[in-house]
Amino acid sequence: MFGQIVIGPPGCGKTTYCAGMSQYFTLLGRPHKIINLDPGNDIHDNENYECAVDISDLVCLENVQEELNLGPNGAMMYCLEYLEANLDWLKEKLEPFEKECFLIFDLPGQVELFNLHESLKNIIGVMQNEWHYRVVTVHLVDGHLCADPWKYVAALMLSLSTMLHLETPHVNVLSKVDLMDKYGELAFNLEFYTEVQDLSYLAEYLNSDPKFKEYNKLTNSIMEIIEDFGLVRFTAMSIEDFDSVNRVCQLCDKSIGYSPEFHKNLKTQQERGSSSSSSAHPAVGPASYFKSGVIPERDWDPRRAYSKMPAEPISASNLDITERFFNSVKISEDDDDGAEDGAGEGKDEIKKEAVEK
Ligand SMILES: Nc1nc2c(ncn2[C@@H]2O[C@H](COP(=O)(O)OP(=O)(O)O)[C@@H](O)[C@H]2O)c(=O)[nH]1
Ligand SMILES: [Mg+2]
User: Fold this and answer.
1) Which pLDDT tens digit goes with each residue over 69-120?
2) Cβ of 109 below 6 Å from ligand 1
3) How far is the CA of 44 from the centre of ligand 2 (A)?
4) What does the domain layout of the chain look like in residue ranges?
5) Fold of the 2-196+232-254 domain
6) Is 176 in the pocket of ligand 1 (CB under 6 A)?
7) How many whole angstroms from 39 Cα to the centroid of ligand 2?
8) Within its chain, how far is the Cα of 351 from the centroid?
9) Under a CB-based contact definition with an 8 Å cutoff, are residues 33 and 52 in contact?
């Protein structure tokens, strides 16, 4: 089973992302299901959001608040702990879709849940190690944080600590970039915020503010930590922009090794009408999320989404390099087995290149 785990602070667009990605998958013909693990999600009025599993069927947030006399944050923690203690329930619910569908998990926005608290980490651990799911974490961060360099630094630290805490493949996304114009002129261009390459410029900018003079050393140290780990990159996305959703999807697929071929046999079966797929695969509705004018037709070839690689920053080319490295490792294993073919020299070159990189 392959899936995306969608996390991020409240209001960053997780539920909208799940609905948008679902619409995108429908356009591609990729069988999928949304799994709502946020008991606080108000999804009943959202016609674009159709979840196959809803945590509210297991535990009700309002009841927890009332009966245990907890505040909203405490009750949310309790709900996730309750889910962790009842993973059999989740497994049973997911089983019918495991082989057939790509899963999109919608999570609550409480930052501590994916940053400090153990329940989500443990749940993901069971998914990966016991259920053998291959999942990628999609961490959404609201693009408006770029408008304030201090908030941006906080977002960088949050992304880094989440990556280290959850230990899953990770795609960090700057969401709602269509709204960037509204926040006035940015201190740096958008690539600076997405690439997270040289933070000394940002440190300089922050240190130039006399109000924060006494924190200069702290600022420099924070930048060094983020740079030394070298893990955080962002991909800019607006849910109504088809290309940006496509780019996020490609990055996610690469990070878990998902290929559309995986569900191809099933799709062929569905097209032949040999399975009762009509409810699993709703007809494409009005593509309200994709206003960019590049809405594919119904018989659009999904492979086009994978071959048309848009210009993508370093984060994507890093993935290419990793991929080539693993290919070369595979080749060297084949060589050890004494396998011989005419392309031997070419392979050696690739191997050398990968080692140099
Ligand atoms: N302009 C714009 N608004 C968005 C985008 N994604 C989400 N939103 C809006 O952000 C608000 C919060 O989104 P929601 O999905 O409920 O956030 P969640 O709390 O993280 O699940 C909603 O009003 C969405 O319509 C986007 O890409 N662009
Ligand atoms: Mg939500």
Assistant:
1) 999 999 999 999 999 999 999 999 999 998 889 999 999 999 999 988 999 9
2) yes
3) 12
4) 2-196+232-254, 313-357
5) Rossmann fold (3.40.50)
6) yes
7) 9
8) 31
9) yes
